[in-house]
Design goal:
It is built from 14 helices and 18 strands. The chain is α/β, with parallel strands linked by helices and 504 residues long. It has 3 domains: 183 residues, 3-Layer(aba) Sandwich (Rossmann fold), CATH 3.40.50.880; 186 residues, HUPs (Rossmann fold), CATH 3.40.50; 102 residues, 2-Layer Sandwich (GMP Synthetase, Chain A, domain 3). The two termini are 36 Å apart.
Length: 504
């Protein structure tokens, strides 16, 4: 096992993903004491990035004793600076901050950079930098503005990098993590099949004969969570599908048709009018997310009272939901309805999240291990708040209809063109912009639809997909001609970061 000590950076769960890609188990923890770290008995430790400066009075630092454990340690960005400070080097504000893709150059031999090109591109995100390395450390990488972009003490297996090898923008990042796994001597024998077996056993022990209510959306995450619970508790599980009126076109009927075939005690609740009334006049994205999150819980509570006492609520929360909703001292990017959107009081003994430690591709893999059909496992993700966060500004019935129709056209043409197979997510959103147009020799002043399609494997970072122009042309033409109230179609070509995948 490799232990990841979290200092609040936005890419921290990506580090876990990169380690697991090497079939090595890892855990992410915040603010652990040395005794707890020693008890975990890690084969290696990674210190993550974070928003603080190590020279600030209240900055988080790892216990100094970890550097006497005799295990390899890798510091990333803030983690590299924390290592520097503890071991006697110096960290100061950088004369020139670095953010984004930056050329790095190897200047020394290193196990960590074995097989890495002498010059490549890495992702930087820092305003401080290492000014002097600790004693017995040598510099291994530099950039134009950062003379100590990486350093190491190979005798003690201490390694530090100022850049972020975990994000896709760092060209040789995966190789760097693979090298660190080798340095740690890990066996690369952790498999998803063992996660599934272990999780079912833990759920049986935790829940016992308790009654369980599962929030089932029909998406990949909640579907896998539902089947895991079904195998653990059988008939003690009831799955509730809430139609909040913010689903894609015809989706409520499709979800019901699929899960009626599963032995999951399936219940459908039509709460569309209720959600719409709660969202009336609300324009701020975080408020919308939190309103939808709380209303979900209230609906589940009401259903649970009708079916009898329910002890546990199950949700399909996954790692990206957790980190973007704020983990430890991490910044809140957006509250996911099943994490940061939960109300303070919840009328259940406990909320169970069996997928909380998995990334999207790992969830799909777990689904296959559980025997779910491929068309369900491969389904593109759909956010819990649904079209509520794909409509910028106030949510109304008219706007829902517009974005449903536009999205259906977009998805249909993407599928017909055969370009859907490599896309991680693609959808239409309704902007809050209106513009002048001309149709039938007459002036219009209507809405603009934005189309989005991204390439990603982890949903923590993403690149915009280059949809063929001829496909986009067909989509735009159909939308403005078939969707009442739309006279302009835009394509979003922004990566994540700096944008998020969803619009709100």
């Amino acid at each position: 096992m490799i232990l990841i000590l979290d200092f609040g950076g936005q890419y921290n769960q990506l580090i876990a993903r990169r380690v697991r890609e090497n079939n090595v188990y890892c855990e992410v923890h915040t603010a652990l004491s040395f005794d707890k770290i020693r008890a975990l008995n890690p084969e290696g430790i990674i210190l993550t990035g974070g928003p603080q400066s190590v020279y600030e009075k209240d900055s988080l630092l790892p216990p100094i004793e970890i550097f006497k454990l005799g295990v390899p340690i890798l510091g990333i960005c803030y983690g590299a600076q924390a290592m520097t400070k503890i071991l006697g080097g110096s960290v100061k504000p950088a004369e020139v901050s670095e953010y984004g893709k930056t050329e790095i150059e190897l200047v020394g031999a290193s196990k960590l950079f074995a097989g890495v090109e002498k010059k490549s591109v890495a992702w930087m995100s820092h305003t401080d930098r290492i000014f002097s390395a600790p004693e017995n450390f040598s510099v291994t990488v530099k950039t134009k503005n950062c003379p100590v972009a990486a350093m190491e003490n190979p005798a003690q297996n201490f390694y530090a990098v100022q850049f972020h090898p975990e994000v896709v923008h760092t060209v040789e990042g995966k190789k760097i993590f693979s090298n660190f796994v080798d340095i740690c001597g890990c066996k690369r024998d952790w498999k998803m099949s063992s996660f599934v077996v272990d999780t079912i056993a833990k759920l049986k022990k935790k829940i016992g004969g308790g009654k369980v209510l599962c929030a089932l959306s029909g998406g990949v995450d909640s579907s896998v969570a539902a089947v895991l619970l079904s195998k653990a508790v059988g008939k003690n599980l009831t799955c509730v599908f809430v139609d909040h009126g913010l689903l894609r076109k015809n989706e409520a009927a499709e979800v019901e048709a699929v899960f009626k075939n599963f032995d999951l005690n399936f219940i459908k609740v039509d709460a569309s009018e209720r959600f719409l009334e709660k969202l009336r006049g609300v324009v701020e994205p975080e408020r919308k997310r939190k309103i939808i999150g709380e209303e979900f819980i209230r609906v589940f509570e009401e259903v649970s009272k009708k079916i009898g006492a329910v002890d546990f609520l199950v949700q399909g929360t996954i790692y990206p939901d957790v980190i973007e909703s704020g983990l430890g001292k991490s910044a809140v990017i957006k509250s996911h309805h099943n994490v940061g959107g939960l109300p303070d009081f919840v009328d259940f003994k406990e909320i169970v999240e069996p997928l909380r430690l998995l990334f999207k591709d790992e969830v799909r893999q777990a689904g296959r291990e559980l025997g779910l059909p491929e068309n369900l496992v491969s389904r593109q993700p759909f956010p819990g708040p649904g079209l509520g966060i794909r409509i910028i500004g106030e949510v109304t019935a008219e706007k829902i209809k517009i974005v449903q129709e536009a999205d259906a056209i977009y998805r249909e043409e993407i599928f017909k063109a055969g370009v859907d197979k490599n896309l991680a997510q693609y959808f239409a959103a309704l902007t809050n912009m209106r513009s002048v147009g001309v149709m039938g020799d007459g002036r219009t002043y209507d809405n603009a639809i934005a189309l989005r399609a991204v390439l990603t494997s982890d949903f923590m970072t993403a690149e915009p997909a280059q949809i063929p122009w001829e496909v986009l042309s067909v989509v735009a033409n159909r939308i403005v001609n078939e969707v009442h109230g739309v006279n302009r179609v835009l394509y979003d070509c922004t990566s994540k970061p700096p944008a998020t995948i969803e619009f709100e």
